[in-house]
Design a protein that fits this description.
heterodimer; A: 473 residues; alpha+beta; Four Helix Bundle (Hemerythrin (Met), subunit A); Heat Shock Protein 90; 5-stranded mixed beta sheet; 7 strands; 63% helix; rod-shaped; B: alpha+beta; 11 strands; 33% strand; globular
Chain lengths: 473, 162
């Protein structure tokens, strides 16, 4: 899948997610707002403004009725009844006065205040009369009735004003609720679409991932097949090359030994050159065969007790002839005989690889230096050269097979690039580690560690300590 | 002269507000198992002579915490008559009424307040009797639904068997 496509999918996913979160936030804040508005409807409940106003009107009418009944001499309405209704009306008036602040400042509040003031005035004026109704004259009583009756209409109007106000409040809340629910539906639809998009993106992604997984599996299989074919090819070619090489070597040996008659000086020189190149070729073929064996896990080892100091000395001797004119210095810092559990021939092979590398990539005027050092239960052996060093961009490929820093046709040194790969394989089979420190233009130090075999026990430590600065490159 | 007599009468009435208060009555009705209604009228003195409980509380209808004194509502009934299944119908002077569950009266110290801050309550100020729930002491009672049970100008209590 292309990078652009993946980015677009990411963007879509984040956009959808952002939309979902935003809409949910809007929805919740809208619901909270609606909740606050709905409390406005509660004015109609018991003890609310409208309720109290209704009660006031009711008590007002009831008082007037009782007063009229009393004046008419109706037996049901006694003087104490009038006083009782008067007191109840008074209490309702007090309660309604308390309500005034709920209205805020507007026209209905002004009307409300005015009517309440008039009722209050009336109640205070007639407070003394109520206590002594029987002492009042008929015209005085009539005047009182007239005054109270004159307020019936304003009180009723007031109730209507409050009912209108409540109705408009209810209407607003209802309208808001409808609007809010419409919005909620719309937002929910968008939420649904957002969720759908996210699901689709996930589906597409998972399908793409599945495809790429299948593709990867196919590629891995192909790579493995190609690799096996390569190993097979290498194995066949090496074997086919070695058979004729053996007979060439045999013939060259006969020539050198004079079995086929004496050679003149020039003949000897040519035979020497042929022998030398034949040995080189043999080594390359052996390296390739070792690689094939290592890859197949068929590299054989014959472990035995090996004295590391002797091993180093032997390696130096064996390799000094590799190229004439190069000296190998040995710095054996081991104070006692150190024995490792190793395959002598394989360790020799490692030395041969490291030393030949050191010689190949360094100035002929400088020596190669081999150092042996003990680090706790490990012996560290390093091969140091004062050569060109390993380029930074090649460092992580040093141990790969067929790896060469300069792989161009015009390179100055030969080799298959298999040596270090095989050396690493061998050292790791010995439970050791192989690593290097290198500085461009100053040289390279390859170091391998091997576990020391104690005489009393064959136990060896599992993890070798990695010393990064055994020898400064 | 008539005016003077009226003034005298008026002065006499005004000078005797407590006399007037004491005329208030609280009618408590309960129905026996056989269906017979029994009704008892309590005067302010009767109620004050019962074991008084003080509830200092605030509610939506007073400006500050007020000390209410009066008998427990449950004390107006026998323990056999009032159970948690009962319902109590409370009626005010303006004929407004509401029903409260017996369980609440048994669970909480609901009183028939006769005195507010040591003084009798006038009809003009929610008297003479006011059902008071101990709201300050019990936060769960500070709910609008309990506000509706604080019947003032209480005149009649009726025990209704469920």
């Amino acid at each position: 899948m292309s990078d652009l496509k993946r980015r677009a999918q990411h963007l879509w996913r984040w956009l959808a997610l952002g939309a979902i979160i935003t809409i949910m936030t809007i929805n919740i804040s809208g619901l909270i707002q609606m909740n606050a508005q709905l409390s406005g409807v509660s004015e109609t409940k018991r003890g609310g403004l409208l309720w109290n106003s209704d009660q006031l009107e009711y008590e007002f009418l009831r008082f007037n009725k009782t007063l009229l009944g009393f004046i008419a001499g109706h037996p049901t309405f006694e003087e104490s009844d009038v006083a009782l209704r008067f007191d109840i009306l008074w209490s309702r008036h007090t309660i309604s006065e308390r309500d005034q602040s709920r209205l805020g400042a507007n026209t209905s509040a002004d009307t409300y205040g005015e009517v309440l003031e008039n009722i209050g005035q009336l109640l205070r004026t007639h407070e003394s009369n109520i206590s002594a109704l029987s002492l009042l004259t008929t015209p005085e009583l009539q005047k009182m009735v007239d005054e109270f009756e004159s307020l019936e209409t304003p009180i009723h109007d007031l109730t209507i004003v409050l009912k209108d106000r409540q109705a408009s409040l209810d209407e607003t809340v209802r309208k808001d609720a409808v609007q809010m629910s419409t919005k909620t539906i719309a937002y929910s639809a968008i939420l649904g679409i957002g969720a759908f998009i996210v699901v689709v993106v996930f589906l597409i992604e998972s399908r793409a991932q599945q495809e790429s997984r299948l593709e990867n599996a196919r590629l891995t299989k192909e790579t493995q097949a190609a690799y096996l074919a390569k190993i097979e090819f290498l194995s066949t070619v090496s074997h086919e090359l070695r058979t004729p090489l053996t007979s060439i070597n045999g013939v060259l040996a006969f020539l050198r030994q004079g079995v086929l008659g004496d050679l003149n000086t020039q003949g000897h020189r040519f035979v020497e050159i042929a022998s030398k190149n034949s040995r080189k070729l043999e080594k390359i073929i052996n390296d390739v065969l070792d690689l094939v064996k290592a890859e197949r896990g068929q590299l054989n080892y014959a472990f035995e007790e090996v004295d590391i100091s002797k091993c180093v000395a032997h390696a130096a001797d064996a390799n000094i002839s590799y190229q004439a004119g190069r000296s190998i210095e040995i710095d054996d810092q081991l104070s006692e005989d150190i024995v490792v559990w190793a395959d002598q021939s394989r360790i020799d092979q490692v030395f041969a690889n490291l030393i030949s590398n050191a010689i190949k990539f360094s100035d002929p005027r400088h020596p190669i230096k081999i150092t042996c050092k003990r680090q706790a239960d490990w012996v560290h052996v390093s091969v140091k050269d004062f050569g060109i060093g390993i380029p930074e961009n090649f460092k992580n490929r040093v141990f790969e097979s067929f790896a060469q820093a300069d792989s161009s046709d015009t390179r100055s040194v030969g080799g298959t690039g298999l040596g270090l790969n095989i050396a690493k394989e061998i050292i790791e089979k010995h439970n050791g580690q192989l690593w290097f420190d290198s500085e461009m233009g100053r040289g390279t130090t390859f170091t391998f560690s091997l576990p020391i075999k104690h005489q009393e026990s064959s136990a060896v430590p599992d993890v070798p300590p990695r010393s990064a600065s055994l020898e400064t490159a | 002269m008539q005016r003077f007599i009226a003034f005298l009468f008026m002065s006499w009435f005004l000078a005797l507000p407590h006399g007037a208060e004491s005329q208030h009555q609280l009618t408590v009705t309960s129905k026996a198992d056989d269906g017979a209604l029994s009704s008892v009228d309590y005067t302010t003195e009767d109620l004050l002579s019962m074991e008084a409980v003080t509830v200092s509380t605030s509610n939506d209808f007073v400006d500050a915490e007020t000390k209410f004194v009066g008998p427990l509502l449950r004390d107006l009934f026998s323990s056999e008559a009032l159970t948690s299944d009962s319902a109590i119908k409370l009626t005010a002077l303006n004929d407004y009424s509401t029903v409260i569950p017996g369980a609440e009266v048994l669970d909480y110290d609901v009183i028939v307040a006769v005195l507010a801050d040591g003084k009798p309550m006038s009809i003009r100020d929610k008297g003479p009797y006011w059902i008071i729930y101990p709201m300050t002491q019990n936060p769960e009672l500070r709910d609008p639904k309990y506000n509706d049970r604080l019947i003032w100008q209480l005149s009649h209590i009726e025990l209704v068997r469920e």
